[in-house]
Structures are given as structure tokens and as C-alpha cells.
Amino acid sequence: MSQEPSPILDAIVRVDRLPATGRSLKVAPDEAARAELAEVLKLNAVESFHATLSVAPLRGGIRALGRLTARIVQPSVVTFEPVTQDIDEPIDRVFLPEAAHHKPTPGSEVFVDIDDDDFPDHIDGPEVDLSALLIETLALAIDPYPRLPGESLESLGLSGTAEETGPFAGLSKLKKPTDPGA
């Protein structure tokens, strides 16, 4: 009998026990959880992580509205030196139960408004684990190509316009005539 791994962040909300006025949820993981989060996201470190959410009932589900702030450290794509990034992201997500009458019948047309806001996430059961939402928000805010200020390939003495290298570079030199009269 295997146990499910425990979530990295503790952000579970019971929809059936949520007051009509909603409730506040603050998530500030300890050092061990931040280290596990850094490992999952392939970062050097997650130095700080704070999320404040207002969770309110909405049409049988919930709406989570708030803000996530974090400070992360990851390697530079140029020199692999540590680069620190401060993250400050708004959160606004709706979770609704999937109703049977909303499922399209086979062969029916489905209207999708591309300009509409995000579609709501579907929930099964009385609980919503918002930890995946928080980790996703952090992951999407991370700079995919971090660099220190002023850092570039040119600053290392490398340039993208250098002579061609690789297994066929020598062959291309053989093809070109070296004698101008040839």
C-alpha cells in the first residue's frame, strides 16, 4: 500500500466548509519546502516565497484571488553565475465543479470564445489543492534566460559571427579555391 506524496505547499481548501464571505489563505513554506520547490523547478534556491489569497465561493466552486511574491536564484545562461530574480505575480483563478450537463454530446458544436478570459479549472470532490496553482504561477514567472547585468557572449570574447565550426567546417575550406586565378 503506497502513500501519496505529500504536497510541497499546504494550500488545501474545503469547498463544502468555505464560509459565504470566503477566507484568507497565506502560504509561506519553510526552508525545507522551499528547497524541495527549488529542486522541482530546477533552481539553485527559492530564498523566499509568500502567497496571500482570498478564497471565496463561486457557483459551487471557488475563486482564488491574490498575489505571489518570491525571490529565486538560478544560474546565468552565459556564465552559470547565480542570478537573483524577484517575482511579484497576481493570481486570479476560478475552480468550478464539472457538471454533466456541460459536457457536449458527440457530434455537437462547441463555441469557444478565444478573446474570453481563461477557462475555469474543474474540480472533483470537496477539496481544492491550490499548491499546484501557486507552483505553476511561480514557474511561469521565472525568466527562462537569466543573465547578470551587462553579461553577453561578446563580454566573454565570443561572438555569434565567428567563422563556422563543426565537423563540416574543414570540408567547406577545401571546396573554396585559394588561388584567385583558379
From TrEMBL:
Superkingdom to which the source organism belongs: Bacteria
Matching Pfam families: YceD (PF02620)
Chain spans, region Disordered: 154-182
InterPro entries: YceD (IPR003772)
Name of protein: DUF177 domain-containing protein
